């Protein structure tokens, strides 16, 4: 696991438990599946979503076993979406390792992702979770799928615009962030207004997080990121920095490069320069600020406790992340 | 819908309802998703699995709405697996229409399949179904995924053998057939021995059905099938006719052609001749007989009613199908 949670030993330790739950539940499925997915779990990434489940659970009656199990489900869902994303993008690297599809092939990646999705529902049906939350989980993944479908629909076209982008990222990213908060809170029997406020914290953190992620494609460092930069652009995904730049691109300089379906090295360089010239980076950073501000305002409304403090600090760290 | 059920007007009409439930539940999701999936539902195929849900439900307390809903879920799961299968196989045709991936691209097909999987769990969580059946559904899809993974693992290699093949098809096909029978029966509150006997009927029909399907790759008619013949072979899936032939291929004639990873037209012709020479077709047909016999024996044990009679007739029809 990354060192992201090392300043919060209780959460760090619980996330290790979450990992063990994931590994244990995958073991015994199929040797081939097992060998391919366990390293991905080991590697772990930042484990933001399961941590958010734990943190929001602590606002209510905290039943550790139940909450850690649902945190494992959420991280597994995220893994499943990553495996399928990498098929579309033909990505070679994920979390500094070979992607499932680059190592085992597209066929394997399709079914490994499907397996994980169903495994999540299997886990949800085993423990004493509410049918309502099971429905919330399926709805969130449906939102992710629709977000991804829309994102792909607008590949390699300058017809993408601000509103479309916001709809896409609220589906593909913020939905699962928001769900993580709401699942933890509702399984810990928090009252509905509190569940909703935590859901809003998640939504706004998710939006800020995704815009930062999209910014990193233009400003990031490959070694720290553990994945290739300029990847989105090369794959024809035009994200916020480009969208803001297009708004100032009155002569259509940028649009004309973007509407071709592949780029030479010079094109990439030209796009980067135009994005900077038309303030795409600056404006995107300002939007991160806006979503972060909303998230902080939501956090302020939460009852005082350690989780509240941690959420506030974590949000600070995320806003300033370089990887 | 195909004319497969036209001799059973009650089932035919109920299957139309099932289709309408599917269409209604998909509508309102996303226009793009909607437009691509509805034609697939319209086209319908034989709708064996939902029909089996209905028929087995009639052995107990038949709550039409509840049973038709779960029949819709089962058919939707099947659709989701077909969409993902077609990605792997690069298939152009399915049910006589363009496949989702050939029409809308691989990226869309991945998320459309994911969407449908989650949509099924969404539907299951909405109606008053048992958590146990929800678990059974997720387990069955996990079996399908593992079956598919194993099948792909043994592509283009003569190392595939009889036992491996049986494990593969019991996962990828018989599991969902068996589930269809068990879901209908258990949601209609049949007692456990009856649920299990119906599950066995489904398993054995599923095994016979898949072997027939694999035989049709060698003996079928492209226009009647609505999909290309020799497709499995060209994709490197070595099914039962080849596996039986390999057992008699003492000199390794057949194996040497099979272990290359692509075929010329002459190779295909040679494989067909060797499969015939080494009795691959005949022996596969004999195994179909064995599974059918088992299914008939299971059907005999069922309490007398119209569904029992229909199941018996349908099994007869399936064994002799040419498409």
Automatic annotation (TrEMBL), chains A, B:
The yes or no answer to whether the keyword Transferase is present is: yes
In terms of PROSITE patterns, this protein maps to: POLYPRENYL_SYNTHASE_1 (PS00723), POLYPRENYL_SYNTHASE_2 (PS00444)
Keywords from UniProt, A to Z, are: Magnesium, Metal-binding, Transferase
Q: Which CDD domains match?
A: Trans_IPPS_HT
| Sample GO molecular function, one term | prenyltransferase activity
Domain of life from the UniProt record? Bacteria
Coiled-coil residue spans: none
Q: Which cofactor does it need?
A: Mg(2+)
Q: Name one Pfam family in it.
A: polyprenyl_synt
Please give a single GO biological process term from the UniProt record. isoprenoid biosynthetic process
InterPro entries, per database record: Isoprenoid_synthase_dom_sf, Polyprenyl_synt, Polyprenyl_synt_CS
Q: Which family does it belong to?
A: Belongs to the FPP/GGPP synthase family.
This chain's protein is named: Polyprenyl synthetase family protein
């Amino acid at each position: 696991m990354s060192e992201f949670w090392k300043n919060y030993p209780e959460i760090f330790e619980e996330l290790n438990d979450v990992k063990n739950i994931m590994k244990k539940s995958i073991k015994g499925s199929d040797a081939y599946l097992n060998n391919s997915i366990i390293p991905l779990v080991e590697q772990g990434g930042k484990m933001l979503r399961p941590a958010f489940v734990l943190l929001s659970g602590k606002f209510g009656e905290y039943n550790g076993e139940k909450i850690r199990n649902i945190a494992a489900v959420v991280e597994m869902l995220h893994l499943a979406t990553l495996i399928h994303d990498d098929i579309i993008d033909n990505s070679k690297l994920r979390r500094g390792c070979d992607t499932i599809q680059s190592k085992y092939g597209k066929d394997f990646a399709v079914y490994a992702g499907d397996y994980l999705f169903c495994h999540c529902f299997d886990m949800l049906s085993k423990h004493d979770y509410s049918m309502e939350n099971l429905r919330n989980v399926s709805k969130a993944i449906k939102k992710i799928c629709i977000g991804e479908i829309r994102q792909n629909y607008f590949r390699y076209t300058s017809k993408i615009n601000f509103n479309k982008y916001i709809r896409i990222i609220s589906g593909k990213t913020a939905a699962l962030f928001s769900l993580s908060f709401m699942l933890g809170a509702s399984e810990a029997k928090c009252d509905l207004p509190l569940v909703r406020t935590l859901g809003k914290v998640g939504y706004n953190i998710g939006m800020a997080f995704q815009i930062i992620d999209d910014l990193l494609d233009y400003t990031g460092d490959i070694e720290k990121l553990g994945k290739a930069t300029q990847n989105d652009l090369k794959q024809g995904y035009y994200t916020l920095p480009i969208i803001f730049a297009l708004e100032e691109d009155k002569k259509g300089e940028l649009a004309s490069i973007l509407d071709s379906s592949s780029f030479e090295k010079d094109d990439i360089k030209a796009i980067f320069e135009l994005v900077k010239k038309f303030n795409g980076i600056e404006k995107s950073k300002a939007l991160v600020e806006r979503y972060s501000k909303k998230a902080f305002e939501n956090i302020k409304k939460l009852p005082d406790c350690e989780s509240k403090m941690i959420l506030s600090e974590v949000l600070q760290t995320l806003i300033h992340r370089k990887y």
